[in-house]
Amino acid sequence: TVKNEQFPQGFLWGGATAANQIEGGFYEGNKGLNIADVLPGGKERLKVLKEPGFNFEIDKTKYNYPNHEAIDFYHRYKEDIKLFAEMGFKVFRMSIAWSRIFPKGTELEPNEEGLAFYDRVFDELHKYGIEPVVTISHYEMPLNLVKEYSGWKSREVIPLFERYASAVLNRYKGKVKYWMTFNEINSALHFPIMSMGFSVQEGENKYQKIFQAFHHQFVASSLAVKACREIIPEAKIGCMLLHAPVYSYDSNPENILYALQEEQIFNYFCGDVQVRGEYPGYAKRFFEENLVDILMEDGDLDLIKDYTVDYIGLSYYMSQTQKKEKEGLDTAAGNLLEGVKNPFLKASDWGWEIDPTGLRIGLNRLYGRYQIPLFVVENGLGAYDKIEDDGLINDDYRIDYLRSHIEAMAEAIKDGVDLMGYTSWGCIDLVSASTGEFSKRYGFIYVDKHDDGSGTLNRERKKSFYWYKDVIKSNGEVL
Ligand code: BG6
Questions:
Q1: What are the DSSP calls for 428-458, one per residue?
Q2: Which of 73, 166, 184, 319 minimizes the number of CB atoms within 10 Å of its CB?
Q3: Could you tell me which of 156, 93, 91 has the C-alpha nearest to residue 130?
């Protein structure tokens, strides 16, 4: 047991999820189809996400679609929230499925049944004193917008998003005070399908498409910040970045420069725009060298400058190690980020390199750069869990992972970082975003649901459930 007294009073402990990965009920309450509904389950998904030319169609003869039922939070939210309350959650991060509120994305009025569902969820959370932390868009854009407009490629999606954001901000102004605009906005550099709603075709200039879409999202995000300031002045609204600090493979200055450039484009570019309100200087050169020419309208840059975010929400799972010439070296393919293997790190069963010190480094780098509060809204270990003969799930590997990352946050706070809270990812087992598996489990709560679709959906407390309960109760003193 490690003792530390570093977490401030009021630190926001909790867990994190996304609508498409837990709710199910994909056709209920007038919900429209969204991107997650057409992503296949299993390792096939990763292939779809990486290869060009995905057609966004459902093909049940070839694939299964785990997000359709997910873990049925849509019907079981009361039971789940009760378990979160038992662990002592102060906050619960969730997202609103855009296509529950605007099924096609183009309607003029929101869908009352969808709005009423989230009212019930928020009321249930408040019953236990749990504050919701809400992501407005988490990989679940209405499919109709993908088909009609090619997602964020098109500027026409901006006012549709603004309408959606204003509708939820208005409806829940008395119930939600922590908001985020786009989940892991920078992840599009690797996976535009999930967050931007298009795939890059063979022979296309990937960067032109992605950075143009980023621009539309930046404008949309600023419009949501503007609406939030007007509708709920006391609320806090953040951006959300996938943070994977970049290391140079060695001390060769060429590699250090290369690592710096990767860090700028992947880790900092979106934050620089959303926090500082300006396109950074290095982007100009990157755009020139990669033939990127962003179409902007008058007023865009003012809006981006005037409506920056209050805090940075970040996910942290891994660092990345980069080298200019990768030939002959093993890649850390499982990391999804195309770096090389770091000889000092072990990896999860999915090849994600485990690096708690990287969290401390990342928090220091981000806070040093931006000087606004940070909120770790995702972190966790995807692992295979086993139910023992006595019915227990002894997930000590998960406890070890989380403990070491919480210790790293405590160190970062001692380093002077202003950290608001921590919501570990997948506090209840859910559908994996990148592989569509149920067997990649993150939860403190086990859900009896399997990759072949079988399972009772029953919920069970894992060993980590009791451990996390003590962590929260002691405000991070007992780890
Ligand atoms: C983040 C996403 O990328 O990582 C989540 O915001 C996702 O939606 C999480 O589930 C873990 O990734 P995966 O692929 O293991 O589910």
A1: B----TTT--SSSB--SEEE---TTS-----
A2: 166
A3: 91
Delineate the domains of the chain, giving CATH numbers in brackets.
Answer: 12-473 (3.20.20.80)
Residue nearest to atom 7 of ligand 1 (CA): 433
Q: Does ligand 1 have an atom closer than 6 angstroms to the CB of 265?
A: no
Closest CA to 193 of 386, 400, 65, 35: 35
Structure confidence at residue 5 (pLDDT): 64
DSSP secondary structure of 221-256: HHHHHHHHHHH-TT-EEEEEEE---EEESSS-HHHH
Atom of ligand 1 nearest to the CA of 183: 6
Would you state the pLDDT for residue 35? 98
CB 4 within 8 A of CB 411: no
Which atom of ligand 1 approaches the CA of 184 most closely? 6
Q: What is the SS3 assignment for 337?
A: coil
The residue behind tokens 């926001």 is 12
Q: Does any ligand 1 atom lie closer than 6 A to the CB of residue 440?
A: yes
pLDDT confidence of residue 411: 97
Residue 97 one-letter amino acid: A
Determine whether the shortest distance from the Cβ of 18 to ligand 1 is under 6 A: yes
- Give the residue ranges of the chain where pLDDT is below 50: 1
* Residue type at position 124: E
Q: Which atom of ligand 1 is nearest to the CA of 187?
A: 3
Please report, as a single letter, which amino acid is at residue 65.
Y
pLDDT at 52: 86
467, 340, 460, 345: which is closest to 400 by C-alpha? 467
Quick one: tokens of 306? 């005037």
Task: Tell me the pLDDT of the chain averaged across its residues.
Answer: 96
Contact 239, 309 (CB under 8 A): yes
pLDDT digits (tens, 9 = 90+) for 212-238: 999 999 999 999 999 999 999 999 999
Residues 7, 279: Cα–Cα separation, whole Å: 34
Residue nearest atom 4 in ligand 1 by C-alpha distance = 433
Is 379 a pocket residue for ligand 1 (Cβ < 6 Å)? no
End-to-end CA distance of the chain: 6
Looking at residue 266, the DSSP 8-state letter turns out to be I
| Residue 41 · residue 60 · CB < 8 Å | no
Please state the pTM of the whole predicted model. 0.97
CB 307 within 8 A of CB 223: yes
What ipTM was estimated for this complex?
A: 0.99
**Residue 429 Cβ contacting ligand 1 at under 6 Å:** no
CA–CA separation, 370 and 15 (whole Å) = 25
Distance CA 392, CA 400 (A): 18
